[in-house]
Amino acid sequence: MFTGRTRTIALSIAAALLGAAAVAIWFQGGSNAARMAAAEPSRCLANGDGRGDIWVPPGTFTMGDTVYPEEGPPRTVSVEGFWMDRTEVTNRDFAAFVAATGYVTVAERPVDATLHPHLPPEMRLPGAVVFVMPNDVDGMGDISQWWQYVPGANWRHPGGPNTSVEGRDDFPVTAVALEDARAYAQWKGRALPTEAQWEWAARAADPAAPPARERPKEANTWQGLFPVVNTAEDGFVGVAPVGCFETNALGLHDMLGNLWEWTADPYDGRRDANVIKGGSYLCAPNYCMRYRPAARQPQEVDLATTHLGFRTVRAAPGP
């Protein structure tokens, strides 16, 4: 999603300009979004419900799609069976890992200036990239209108130093870099899924399923005109607790939408970026139709963002 050291936050993205009508809609949509945020639940699954593993059977399928160039070409891929976390790793899960190991995440450490010598001093401070909903935008070519590098943002304080995950144990952990996700998985005796494993699981292990094109109904995505109009028709203006939407046919929650998820695979052989999958609560038809199993994006391995989480897998015999 962010590449080429996008702590500078500059990408060129072709999209429609927002007119006065969209701005007028924002005032109603923004007000409704604030009201919805105050009423959002902090938990959707009862204690213990929805936790544990789901068996993903082996199979062969056509991986990839043609909606965006990076998804192709479609190719035949075979996957062995594996077990996958039913939900994304939560703040509660990650806190247990940190308490047991004393682990310090990438976002909690100063940026390695030898790897990124051209960053200004304020962007070398510990921190993460945070989505901040703008009142208006001047076109869609400058993502710094809604993405900001915030010193002090990390998994404990995903919006910055004045925010907290207190009371949000059942929300998926965010602001984790690839190293952090791998460390947690290793501590659990597990691994991150490969891109093929992840896509096969998101397709509910159904080789006959046609490529998804429409926005999924059972997923936390952006309703309205991104990034200024969010009507929150799905009940959430931001990240949702795990398990608020129906599972797919395998029993996996939130494979699409809510948060992008790390995979184990480098992006097209690159050393500085891995593949992320699934889209997030920020995906909308006018901007990012990546709430589909085949969608994929590169993400810098050492850059923590607040629309990205992960889940883990393990190789073991099936039930």
Major sheet: arrangement of strands: 9-8-7-10
Class by alpha and beta content:
alpha+beta
Number of domains: 1
CATH superfamily placement: paralog of FGE (formylglycine-generating enzyme)
Number-wise, the strands total 11
How far apart are the termini?
36 Å
**Level-1 CATH class name:** Alpha Beta
Uncertain stretches? 5-31
Gross morphology? globular
Percent range of helical residues: 10-25%
Q: Give the radius of gyration.
A: 19 Å
By DSSP (H or I, 4+ residues per run), the number of helices equals 4
Instruction: Supply the CATH architecture.
Output: Alpha-Beta Complex
Report mean pLDDT, rounded to a whole number: 87
Structural description of this entry:
- The chain is of the alpha+beta class.
- Helices cover 15% and strands 15% of the residues.
- It has 4 helices and 11 strands; from the N terminus they run αββββαββααβββββ.
- The chain has helices at 20-39, 91-101, 178-187, 195-202; strands at 53-56, 59-63, 75-79, 82-85, 127-131, 147-151, 260-266, 273-277, 297-300, 308-309, 313-314.
- The strands form 4 sheets. The chain has a 4-stranded mixed β-sheet with strand order 9-8-7-10.
- The longest helix has 20 residues, at 20-39.
- The relative contact order is 0.23.
